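Title: Request for sanity check on FemAB prediction

Description:
We are preparing a figure and want to confirm that the structure record we downloaded matches what your pipeline produces today. Could someone re-run it with the sequence below and paste the raw structure tokens into this thread? We only need the token string, no images.
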Amino acid sequence: MIQGSAAGLCVTTLDLRDPAQARGVDDYVLAHAASTPFHRPAWLRAIEEATGNRALMLAAVGPSGRISGLLPLHHMKSALFGQALVSSGFAVDGGILADDARAVAMLAQAARDLSRDRGGIAIELRGGPAPGGDWQTREGQHLGFSRPLASDEEAELLAIPRKHRAELRKALANSALRFEVGRERQHLRDHYHVYATSVRNLGTPVFPARLFRAVLEHFGEDADIAIVRDGDRAVSAVLTLYHNGRAMPFWGGGIGDARRLRSNELLYFRLMGHARARGMEIFDFGRSKVGSGQAAWKKSFGFEPVPLAYHGWSPQGAARDIDPNSAKYQRRIDLWKTLPLPVANLIGPLIARGLG
């Protein structure tokens, strides 16, 4: 037990390795309208197993054991980037998930207590309600992009602005390009090659390959990999999560030829159709940095940006600096772009597993 009761409610740490407790958490998350896949035990355990960053699940519970709120956390540790309690690690969302303001306040206080117990490390909440008080809210850095899926393929095509639609039609007319979805080893290997190439070209260390395997294993049919091939060669790929009627393409990229082939346009358009066939209602394109080319590309695809708010707390008032746009990282990013891919893939996971 972490925190005392308030009108019958208390905060405790749940054991996600206990099948009954994990099932109770999943039932609560899947029934909550504001939940994300990053609140699920599947996400917490996959990140912990693949990166070594310990997962913790704080829960506000009543006397009967009924859950009234959750706060998933990963204790991120890095020699380069320091430590933090992050909700959720390697995610773009998370934060407190609760039924009412009382549960929000208790979970926020429990997180502060946990931070002090671990030496006063920073807390990062990537979404959820603002805890208020001495918590800081950071806005103006990231945008979210999502919209309802159209009723059919033709309506989806017409929902894309004319200029971008013309580019997509060129890809649709290219008979050498084919779209496929799967969860087999070959899909994982091809996705990792495409993704690793893409992030190396952006100057970012790639995540460990076992992270993608772990997410597929823990999410089961709620995750898959979509690939566009030019002949037999994978040119664009993305790992997608499915949650409460929402398709969330999460880790994706393209090789150097993707722009010429317009394979990214084809990838996401066909993925929309795949999501519709699965019964999804919302296509969530994820977050992008304000002013980035990625944000402009998503907007040109017919997605309107929505500002995102993140919340943080630290007894010292200082948060980790893991922003790739930070001036102190620019020289390193430029150097990383020049590394041969095998070298980047060897060193990158050792660095990236502490970023979170």
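Thanks, this matches our download. DSSP finds twelve helices and 16 strands in the chain.
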